[in-house]
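How it folds:
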Amino acid sequence: MEVEMNTKHLSLFMQVIKTGNITQVAKDLHVSQPAISMQLKRLEQEIGVPLFTIVGRNISVTDAGLTFLEYAESILSLEGQIYRAMEEFRLGNRGRIVVGTSSVIGTYLLPKLMLSFTQAHPDIKVDLETRTDDEIERFVRMGSFDIGITLKVPEDHFSFRITRFSEDRLIGIQPPIPINNQTLLIPEDMSIILSTDLDANIIKLDSTESVKQFVMEGMGYGVILESAARFEIASDRLHPWSGYNPHHVVVNVITRPAERLSKSVWYFLNHLRK
C-alpha cells in the first residue's frame, strides 16, 4: 500500500496528540477546528488504521497511533537536520545548531560560553532548548537536538559521543542568620543525592532559583550546585551548610556519532574545549 503524506500532516498529528485537545491546537495555529479534524481524518484514511479516538473536544491516541507518533517524530527530526545541513551549504560558514540543556545549566553555566561563542562565530545561530536530562538524551538520539548538555551520563552511552565539559559540586546552603528549621529544599530540575540518615522534611521546588530565594528568606536549608550559589555566598546572602556533604558532579556534552555532525556543531564543540 502506497501512502501519500506530507510532514505538515505529521506535525499536526504530533501537536494534537501531545496537546490532547483539537480546539487548543486550532487556536495555536489560527485555523478552524473543522479544518484540523478534516486533515487528521484524511491522514487516518491514508494510513488505513485508527490512529486516535475523539470524545467531545479531547483526543486520545490508539496503540497504532503511538507507533505512528514515534515514526512521525523521527521523520520530523530528520527533516530539521536536512534543513540545517543544507543551510550550511547555502550560507557558507553560517549555520544553525540546536542545543538542549537543563534549566540550571542554561542559567548558571552557559551564559559566558554562549557569549564567547557568538562573539567568535557571529554567523552561527544557536537555539537553546530547556528540557530534562532524559528528554535531552532522547532528542539528541533522534537528531532534534544537535548537542545536549546534561548532568547525567546517558544510560545507552554507546549511542552517543560523550565529552566532559566541566565539573561542579552539589553543596548545602543556609541563610546568613541561624534558623530553627528542619526543612530541606531541593530543586526538582536536577537529581540530588541525599543521605538516608538525613533527618529533614524534604520539599521540592520548581527550580534552583526558587530554592535560593526560599533559603534566603529563612524557610529552610537547601542543596544546589555550587556555581549557582557563588554570587550569593560571596555577597553574604547565603552561607555554606555543613549538614550536607558536598557531592561531585560532572557536566557532560552529548552528541550523535562524530561522522553525523555538521560543521557548525564542530565549531561549537571545539569552542567548549578552549
